[in-house]
Design goal:
α5 runs parallel beside α12 and α6 packs across α7. This protein folds into 2 domains: 486 residues, ANL, N-terminal domain (Rossmann fold); 126 residues, GMP Synthetase, Chain A, domain 3 (2-Layer Sandwich), CATH 3.30.300. β29, α19 and β30 form a beta-alpha-beta unit. The chain has a 7-stranded mixed beta sheet with strand order 5-4-17-16-18-19-20, sandwiched between helices. The protein is of the alpha/beta class. It binds 5'-O-[(S)-butoxy(hydroxy)phosphoryl]adenosine (WT7). 5'-O-[(S)-butoxy(hydroxy)phosphoryl]adenosine binds next to α12, β20 and β25.
Length: 651
């Protein structure tokens, strides 16, 4: 973690207590809940779980055999039923909009809860007709359209397990995730829109399918509701969504699932080249996202909730789909880019759809800052009443800019820290209770027990350390798919029975948390997690590359940008053209988010005598810093040469 950023944060003294107006109307304002919840987390969480509809009650709240937890043991529940049926059956909600969709081309479609129930039930019957049942895995690789949510909910309805792969990932990344999860069915689309261009998803998916023998059927959504020439359909395997849906019934009973049955698997990057399939189960996950959506966002019946995340990330699972829908909210979803056709797109959408809660990532906020306020000034943002931030630390300047220009100094900002693994928000202000500070995620959500520890597991009362979660919580990951050993090693081996998230943090004198970024070899590029090892293995996969080491360095918009040091094989010539080729190769292997900002060729990489690459030194070089300790280095000249080269930017 960087000490510069720590010093900057220490200077931050502005505070923003909840306004009396907001506080008066807030869903929750009793600050004593923090202590109450922690004194008896099990009864606190079971009070939340009771607000969901269960087919059968649980027998035991928590079974904790560290690091394995079971929540609401023996309870039977269906996530789709809780997100759809119970609202469709409620006369006050059935005609309420569940989803408002805007496509990049400007078309708008809405689905009420009653309509959503029909669509989900029809699609659930489609899946059943293809032989999908309880426990089967479904891969989803789609644009951000209502059908992607329908597909997830239909999967949950019949007890299948969805594995959503972000549409920006490459064919190879898709293939890895399909193979690891042994998916039987792939749901994709002919295309989606991105900056006025068609992104051909089925075409990319076709490249992966050759190496995915478990896939028996492919369902293709025609973006225009009809077949398109953009797709090659394989007879017997590939089917159009609109064809399959035609003859099915719109009634399908939701499958009673065990609270601990798997709801979804979602892959995320770790410290090795292989992404981890994070496993979430049904009852606990739903309880966590239900509770946090209601309190963190102060959700009210007439809110229009816009979380800008794609469903390919956990934020899209928890705060576009399951959290808001379990609460019977109206969500807005948007398919395209924030600067298309103009940089005012988001603000025009806020005005048009009267968005009241807006939840986005710091990388987007920094881009808006750069574009300037002229795009905002011409729109009416008076419908907004609460703002959120997620995905990476938000720098105080971006926080203040967001507060002033989007919130008009009138909307609380909730900076929410959590992870794919935690399922739901963990550290966050409650907007009616907590005084916010620009750059601080403030306090653990009631019922979450978080602290700061050092390497030895001793509590840190002042200064920096590692964030640690020392009690189990309902929406926690249950394991890594097919790799329980890695689950234990990665998250539970640092301290006994305590969860290690991998983030550096500082607590101030009020006990508030200030996040400082990852402490492992995981980067955060535009709020998306990527392992250095993943990018390295994509680079060494190129035939001309012998070795590579990847580090990140601060980037104005993306938060972090990738710098790759590359050693070529004997006889290979370094050139600018080869740099471009290597960047392209990484995009092909992983996806556009992994494209390195800079590539530096080097005859050798700095290594310890035992042959370990000294990434810290490379990071210093990338940051243009004075070199750290090089005494353990096998050949100190390597570093000096590299540094000279980097500073001269030849290579
Ligand atoms: C990592 C998790 C949480 C959904 C999106 C990312 C970083 C996330 C914050 C925040 C500082 C944050 C952490 C975390 N992170 N939110 N509010 N402040 N850092 O999910 O891909 O699983 O990444 O994102 O480093 O470990 P993810």
């Amino acid at each position: 973690m960087s000490t510069d950023s720590l010093d900057d944060l220490l200077k931050e003294e502005r505070i923003f207590p909840p306004s009396s107006d907001f506080q008066q109307k807030a869903n929750f304002k009793d600050a004593s809940i923090y202590e109450k919840a922690l004194s008896d987390p099990e009864s606190y969480w079971s009070d939340w779980a009771k607000k969901l509809d269960w087919f059968e009650p649980w027998k035991e709240v928590l079974k904790w055999n560290p690091p394995h937890a079971e929540w609401f043991v023996g309870g039977k529940i269906n996530a789709c039923y809780n997100c759809v049926d119970r609202h469709a059956a409620n006369p006050d909600r059935k005609n309420k909009k569940a989803i408002i969709f805007e496509g990049e081309q400007g078309e708008v479609r809405t689905l009420t809860y009653e309509e959503l129930l029909k669509e989900v039930s029809r699609f659930a019957n489609v899946l059943k007709n293809l032989g999908v049942g309880k426990g089967d895995r479904i891969a989803i690789y789609m644009p951000m359209v209502p059908e992607v949510m329908i597909a997830c909910l239909a999967s949950a309805r019949i007890g299948a397990v969805h594995n959503v792969v972000f549409g920006g990932f490459s064919a190879e990344s898709l293939a890895d995730r399909i193979q690891d999860s042994s998916a039987k069915v792939l749901i994709t689309g002919d295309y989606g829109w991105r900056r006025g261009k068609k992104i051909l998803l089925k075409k990319a998916a076709d490249e992966s399918l050759d190496t995915c023998p478990t896939i028996e059927n492919v369902i293709v959504l025609g973006r225009e509701g009809k077949s398109s020439e953009d797709c090659q359909m394989k007879e017997g395997r590939d089917h159009w969504w609109h064809d399959l849906i035609q003859d099915v019934n719109d009634v399908c009973a939701p499958e009673p699932m065990d609270a601990e049955d798997m709801l979804f698997v979602l892959y995320t990057s770790g410290t090795t080249g292989k992404p981890k399939g994070i496993v979430h189960t049904t009852g606990g996950y739903l309880t966590g996202v239900y509770a946090t959506t209601q309190w963190v966002f102060d959700l009210k019946e007439d809110d229009i909730f816009w979380c800008t995340a794609d469903i390919g990330w956990v934020t899209g699972h928890s705060y576009v789909t399951y959290g808001p829908l379990a609460n019977g909210a109206t969500v807005l979803i948007y398919e395209g880019s924030p600067d298309w056709p103009e940089k005012s797109r988001f603000w025009e959408m806020v005005e048009k759809h009267k968005v009241s809660i807006f939840y986005t990532a710091p990388t987007a906020i920094r881009a808006f800052m750069k574009w300037g306020t002229e795009w905002i000034d011409k729109t009416d943002l008076s419908s907004l009443r609460l703002l959120g931030s997620v995905g990476e630390p938000i720098n105080p300047e971006a926080w203040m800019w967001y507060h002033k220009n989007i919130g008009k100094e009138n909307c609380p900002i909730v900076d929410t820290w959590w992870q794919t693994e935690t399922g739901a928000i963990m550290i966050t202000p409650l907007p009616g209770v907590v005084t916010t500070k620009p750059g601080s995620a403030t306090k653990a959500f009631p019922g979450i027990s978080a602290t700061v520890l050092n390497e030895q597991g001793e509590e840190i009362t002042s200064g920096g350390g590692y964030v640690a979660i020392n009690k189990p919580w309902p929406s926690m990951l249950r394991t890594i798919l097919n790799d329980d050993e890695r689950f234990k090693e990665q998250y539970w081996s640092k301290w006994d029975g305590i969860y290690f998230p991998g983030d550096g943090v500082k607590r101030d004198e009020d006990g508030d948390f200030w996040f400082l970024g990852r402490v492992d070899d995981v980067m955060n590029i535009s709020g998306h997690r990527l392992g250095t090892a993943e990018v390295e293995s994509a680079l060494v996969d190129h035939q001309k590359v012998a070795e590579s080491a990847v580090v990140s360095k601060p980037h104005e918009i993306k938060g972090e940008g990738i710098v790759a040091f590359v050693t070529l094989k004997e006889g290979q010539e370094a050139s600018d053209a080869l740099k471009d080729e290597l960047k392209q190769h990484v995009v092909k292997k992983i996806g556009a988010i992994a494209r390195p900002e800079e590539i530096l060729f080097s005859v050798d990489l700095p290594k310890t005598r035992s042959g370990k690459i000294m990434r810290r030194l490379l990071k210093d070089i990338a940051l243009g810093k004075a070199l750290g300790d090089t005494t353990t280095l096998a050949d100190p000249n390597v570093v000096a040469e590299l540094k000279e080269k980097y500073e001269g930017k030849e290579g």
